[in-house]
Amino acid sequence: MPATTLGTSEQLLAELRLWVEQETPTTDPWAVNALVDRCEAELAAVGGEITRIPGRDGFGDTLVCRTPGAAGSNLPPVMVSGHLDTVWDHGTLAGPMPFRVEGDKAYGPGIYDMKAGSFMAFHSVREILRQKIPTKRPIVLLLTPDEEVGSPTSRDVIEQTARGARAVLIPEPAGAGGACVTARKGVGRFDIRVRGVSAHSGGNWSEGRSAVVALSRLVLQIHGMTDLAAGITTNVAPIFGGTRPNVIPPEAGAEVDLRVPTIAEGERMEKLILALAGEQDGIAITVTGGMNRPPFAENAEIRALYDQAKALAAAAGYDLPKQHRGGGSDGNFTAALGIPTLDGLGCTGAGAHAPHEHIVWTDLAARCATLCGLLEAID
Fold first, then answer.
1. Mean per-residue pLDDT for 347-373?
2. What is the pLDDT of residue 68?
3. What does the DSSP assignment read for 23-49?
4. Is 186-293 a domain of CATH 3.30.70.330?
5. Is the pLDDT of residue 327 over 90?
């Protein structure tokens, strides 16, 4: 158990509720920054060394908080990184997903992915500072604004900070059975645009070249690249095309999600998808994008971190299994740099990005104890 006093699950939920009821869609930097303001004020008040990196390209700010560690240690720090943005638009709380508690479940937009985990990281660092608890190494806390769209503005900060770290902890949601994450697939994102030739669908059908038909063929081709046995999946969505039923559509487009288990497979699949571009018979296809998050592979150092977390979890009264997960996170970036990274250290629950999103709030204290224990004890 950590030396830091963290409080009960009821107490943690009461403060977490304030975070959930402050909506933070990725696309609204002012909303995200309102929560950044709250975190900055709380951490600065207890002596955190704060760096706030202004947002750009329509995203919010990134907050960095450093603690001194034992006796002002200058050893490489332990980094813990969470995101404050969610996929949920303004008005979700007032409409289909109000914050509510039903038994041991607490519901609300972003509560599972990943406001509970980010709050646990924030709360652990704040209380370590407030209570002046010595840690074996300094701690660096990152709270970022844009993970849900691939971390386009925070990736550089994450990677730069991780390069000097002893280990990285990612409090993304726990998986099935409360599992933490020791490996993740790499993620690729692509954008497809198809240009055809417009024509009247009745009087001049033969003069047209349907961008929608061409896109449909591409969708089936990309879908056929999925190889479940090899751990490769593709998904095409959303799609668009056409204007009216009586007009041969001159434009269509789609986005593509790619998941791969290894860097080599990522490179191979990226080439295959980009090679779909070209021109033929009045149809022009452009494909842009590529691998966004490199694969995150388990190794001996990550297993050692996991063993330490498992022992802390046992002391907190629960078992901590591990899993390899298909979804990406900011842990993909840090693991690919060779920094030992343990992910999925957030709260138990289910329904990420879905209307039934929830946490098992009664697990908050125990899960937070494990995260805080790692922050104190990693040497």
1. 97
2. 85
3. --BTT-HHHHHHHHHHHHHHHHHTT-E
4. no
5. no
